[in-house]
Amino acid sequence: MEAEIDAPINEEMSTGEATERSEAASRPETKGKAGAHVALISSKLAYSGPLFDVYTDYVREPEGEESRRDVIRHSGSVVILALDSSKNPADPMVVVERQYRHAAGQYMWELPAGRKDPEEAPLAGAKRELLEETGYTARRWSKLARFYVSPGFLAEWMQVYVAEGLTSGEAKPDEDEYIECRQIPLSRALQWIETGKIIDAKTIVALLLYSRRRLAARRTVAGS
Questions:
Q1: Measured between alpha carbons, how far is residue 139 from residues 2, 5, 76, 97, 142 in Å?
Q2: Among 49, 59, 87, 218, which residue's CB has the most CB atoms within a 10 Å radius?
Q3: What residues are annotated to the active site?
């Protein structure tokens, strides 16, 4: 039986709630500093693609000036910190991937991740992406963090899950995905962040936050 354990920081929103919040980011009125309002004047679809849409919005700033805002709208992504503690609970193995990222112009080490389908629940998307990219399934899932990647122009949010109790299987990546998958100790993954071998933001956020909470939990147990 797979069990989802709620992390203490974020309550996961339903698909409808996530869509409503994403749309509210630019379409309805939103409050700015000191109660001032930023009002939407117009919103036009400038580009529609298989992964995201681009809208050109015009807004009225609190001072009354009109501004143009080009916004990339995305259905959201899931990130999976998959851990195997069976051999060394003190330093669990982390599933990482290496693949070429065209926008960055280089190969990058990352955690498994992918786009959530528009009507797909985040946890279901996380399970699907982990299986497709790595072949792993997990018995236990817990929420770690939820954040916006670059809110200045990108409406994409990312939900990070911790997956534990792994069982290996056959990966089924998309036709355009060429992924090298391996397990490395958590301590090595943290070293890769320090040395600049891992430069992917979602991976850095997930690993550092998990490591911090793990350390805090140990201190609490030691002090009790």
A1: 4, 11, 24, 21, 10
A2: 59
A3: 175
Q: CA 173, 177, 178, 179 torsion: positive or negative?
A: negative
CA separation for the pair 61, 18 (Å, rounded) = 25
Alpha carbon distance 137, 130 (integer Å): 7
Residue-wise pLDDT for 49-76, tens only, equals 888 999 999 999 888 899 999 999 999 9
This prediction's pTM: 0.80
Superfamily for domain range 3-13+75-223: Nucleoside Triphosphate Pyrophosphohydrolase (3.90.79.10)
Which phi-psi region, left, alpha or beta, contains residue 13 (left: φ > 0; alpha: ψ -120 to 50)? beta
CB-neighbour burial class of residue 120 (10 A; exposed 0-12, middle 13-18, buried 19+):
middle
Q: What do you get for the CA distance between the two ends of the chain, in Å?
A: 32
Contact 128, 173 (CB under 8 A): no
- 3-state DSSP call for residue 93? strand
pLDDT tens-digit readout, 8-24: 434 444 444 444 444 44
- What are the C-alpha distances in Å from 80 to residues 50, 125, 137, 157? 23, 10, 11, 14
- Look up the CATH architecture of domain 17-73: Roll (2.30)
Please state the domain extents for the chain: 3-13+75-223, 17-73
CB atoms within 10 A of CB 183: 18
- Look at the block and give the residue holding tokens 């355009």: 176
